[in-house]
Amino acid sequence: MATDDIDTIQKWVVTTCQDLGLSVDAESDFFRSGGSSLTAVKLIARAEEAYGEDALPPDDLFSNSSVREIAESIARNGQQADASPA
Amino acid sequence: MKRLTAGPRARDVHALANVDTSVPFPSDSSMKELFEHRARRNGGATALVHGDRRMTYAELNAAANRLAGHLVRQGCRRGDVVGVCVRRSCELVVALLAIVKCGAVYLPFDPSWPDERLHVMFGIAGCDRVVTDQREALAARLPRCQVTDVSSSDGDGAADPAVAVLPTDIAYVNFTSGSTGRPKGVPIQHRSVVRLVHDARYTRLDDRAVTLFLAPVTFDAATFEIWGALLNGGTCVVYPGGFVRLSELRRVVRRHAVSTVFLTTALFNTMVDEDVDALGTVDTVLTGGEAHSLPHVEKALAHYGAGRIVSVYGPTECTTFATYYPLTGPQPEDRPLPIGRPIQNTRVHLVRDDRLCEPGETGEVCLSGPGLSPGYLGMPEETARRFVDCEVDGVTERLYRTGDLAYFEADGVLVFQGRDDDQVKVNGHRIELGEVQHVLTGHPDVRQAFVTVHVTGTGERVLMAFAVSDAPAEALREHLAHRLPPYMVPAVIEVRASLPLSAHGKVDREALLSSLRSGS
């Protein structure tokens, strides 16, 4: 299970968004970079795969959608190794 | 009256396509009667599920009777139009049923739609009453409406409202984009909903059916999802959130043994890409709304097996579904996925130059049967243009001209071929590009505008606007957002000094989009 720090998570967000076809960097906003509600479905599915169930709640993504804020939400909500030992 | 001619090959293929589609259904019963009959006969059966909450038919019937009692006491009469804005919950369904029980008409709307849009819609529909779980917020936004809390109740709910509702009464109104800048209100009769869900051919709908209410209630797919269960004695599972998560979808369909799910084409593709097995336990996956991607369909077919994925097609004007095509095997690569044959009690004609098309010949899809709306609210000219009486083979048919193009295969299966105008589908939403363009050019600083669909790097279709304007893009976005629902506001708005024209003097869409790619 991931014990990633915020910077590692942020890199994961950037890489995943790029993989979904968005041109983003660490400063970008998900929706302003062309992310649609469908891209959001995909991003959330991938966040849950990497960081566990509810790692990225939709309400968080829709209200705070910068790459940094997305990483912060995952850091808050993702299952960290210290919370659920593997 | 227009008379449609037909050669022998055209006549044969139409007979083949429409064979046995007219079957007995309770065309003299209203939704009210059919639901109340279920509640009387099997009141202990589960009607609704939302999270940990369950409601039996008897409980749902009583709850709807109590709210209906309150509405009637407030003066709600048969034929009145009642707006509904309730978060996804059992109460949302209680509200719809209560309105139906009053013989009134429900008009679902989304609180994210701007005030001006709501004002226009309510004006067209003559709606001055709203049922909601957000009473204070809406009362401030809708000062001319009587705003009723969905938890209001009157009496013990034991007696059904003593209102005689006819099968030709209107059950609900959905609004759809209109090219002239005015949304079109589509009223749907009780019998049209009954026709959709009685003895359904596209999926099993009976007292063991478990449907998933997943679509926004403002989409007409919700008609199938809700009433497909409740008029047949089955169970309607209300998807918990407003936003679809694949992990949650997977969990919900397993936990509640959902038997049939409708996904828009875009969501279907997303599921296939990210978690093809999300609906692995479901009997039938219905999908439609846009042209299908064959690779996605093939991948789903390989996972789900023959007969479980069904392509469905239908405009709001013909009550949710008009045709269906169950995938039974691999599809030829050089042909779009067919939209298939008419569902029960629905007929399809392909028309070109006042005659019926032969196999292989492209024509306009014209639908008929008891699914047809009586016509657009307050728009007699648009109604006369789209809903036409024709004589076909000596029989008078009222046809709805969809504007969709298709051809018949020799076996009577329909293959979709696009539109004859600039109506588009984006993420399941039906949008007239002309309406967005009309609103955009209504901005005082916009001299010229062009709206189109752009396929993004993620492979998704988004709305895109180009404007020759003194105002910045953000001001134009605000202008649009004040007048149009969010799904009609273009994802990208580009301000340009001029728009490239083609040799015919029309805006050159390809040149615009390629200028975007080269970043100029």
List the helices and strands and how they pair.
The complex is a heterodimer of chains A (86) and B (520).
Chain A: H1 6-19, H2 37-51, H3 58-63, H4 67-77
Chain B: E1 2-4, H1 8-17, H2 31-41, E2 46-50, E3 53-56, H3 57-73, E4 81-85, H4 90-101, E5 105-108, H5 115-125, E6 127-132, H6 135-141, E7 146-149, E8 170-176, E9 184-189, H7 190-197, E10 210-213, H8 221-230, E11 235-238, H9 246-255, E12 260-264, H10 265-274, E13 284-288, H11 294-304, E14 309-313, E15 323-326, E16 341-342, E17 347-352, E18 355-356, E19 363-368, H12 380-386, E20 387-392, E21 395-408, E22 414-419, E23 423-426, E24 429-432, H13 433-441, E25 446-455, E26 461-469, H14 473-481, E27 492-496, H15 509-517
Parallel strand pairs in B: 1-20, 2-11, 4-5, 4-6, 6-7, 10-11, 12-13, 13-14, 26-27
Antiparallel strand pairs in B: 2-3, 8-9, 14-15, 15-16, 17-18, 17-19, 19-21, 20-21, 21-22, 23-24, 25-26
Helix pairs in contact in B: 2-3, 3-4, 7-8, 10-11
> What's the number of helices of chain A?
4
Q: Which bin fits the share of residues in helices of chain B?
A: 25-40%
Given as residue ranges, the uncertain stretches of chain A (5+ residues, pLDDT < 50) are 81-86
What percent strand of chain B? 25-35%
